Amino acid sequence: MSNPHRSYDNTCGSPVSGCSGVDDGNGKKHVLRELKNKLLRPEFDIDDCGSCSFNGVVSKPSRRNQVSDIASRLDLKELLDACAEAVEEADILTAEVLMNVLEQRVSVSGEPMQRLSAYLLEGLRARLLSSGSIIYKKLKCNEPTSSELLSNMQVLYHICPYYKFAYMSANVVILEAMKNENRIHIIDFQIAQGSQWMFLIHDLAHRRGGPPFVHITGIDDSQSAHAWGGGLQLVGEKLSSIAESYGVPFEFHGAALSGCKVKLEHLRVRHGEALAVNFPYMLHHMPDESVSTMNHRDRLLRLVKSLSPKIVTLVEQESNTNTAPFLPRFRETLDYYKAMFESIDAARPRDDMQRISAEENCIARDFVNIIACEGAERVERHELFGKWRSRLVMAGFTPCLLSPLVGETIKDMLKEYSPNYRFAESQGALYLGWKNRALATSSAWQ
């Protein structure tokens, strides 16, 4: 199980995949260059223009057919790579031909690579036309209704273990850290529907010696009010109702703002409450020093450290798309989501409309942002665990030794899924992967 990649930020040996980083392309076949060499042969008469046009660039139909014939001999991965190189070099003519060939071979109801290619193609097209941020914003405005989104999220929750991995690993860590505490305060920096805490409240209700007082501060972007069908108020009411049914003393406080705007006064930290802080697939949305001098990614970690929490849980995608240049970032995105789409494919039929909707509404938007947007408009900025570890250590945290119960819980959970999922523990982190590719990590800090 070894598949080494080069990382721009750091080299991190993953026990699942050798290393999950971007491949800068050294030593690999440069498909676009080979294609261009063929196109530049005299019989193609590259300076001879005809009637076909794309953004003002014209070419002969016969030449276009010859180029398409060459491109049709490439597999999807080679086509995507060649197209990404053409987009990077602003070679509109070559990009157009390759996109036309791709268009005929992708399908949202096809094999995993066909489905992934359909969305990556849209991201490349958006970047080429310099409309990435426009399309991304339009997608955000045209989100599915709250019931549709919840349905899509539930589909992903049941057919693949990525959300359960986050919830269950963090909950076990928090339960163990708080086993002797009578008053608990949990700050969740992306609470969404609050589903994670329903399970924790249930477990605390059956704790030996009786349940503690539980205070939850739920943070979520105010734009999520539409997505979650009413926002934090309904989340608080639901959790309060569940706590009451289990006899758990409970209080909820909602903070409808993004992590970039969180300050000490929003968190309502109280003396006498043991504090747990949860970062579930959230910190990669915070801009760092490569985007803004404010560096909200590290600022937020320092703020949390100043609260002296008893435990901090971090779950993140094991991918490197933060500071990598466009082409290696594209290759990393292709590699990462190819594994994810394969894992989803193992659980649902290819013509399953729920799966198609879940991939489109819960995953595809990220592709557009990673591939087509830059600067502050690119909010999907993943880092490898090695980089997160460096940030946490610089903020003053030390890693917590995970008890065997955490790993046993995840292994039991994975029995419900395909045997192609991989689980490992290394350097204080839990790794979840598909075949030879690490996809997520979970860790705990003090």
TrEMBL record:
Residues 153-218 are annotated as: VHIID. Residues 234-266 are annotated as: Leucine repeat II (LRII). Residues 74-134 are annotated as: Leucine repeat I (LRI). A motif (VHIID) lies at residues 184-188. Residues 372-446 are annotated as: SAW. PROSITE patterns: GRAS (PS50985). Keywords: Transcription, Transcription regulation. This is Scarecrow-like protein 13. It comes from Anisodus tanguticus.
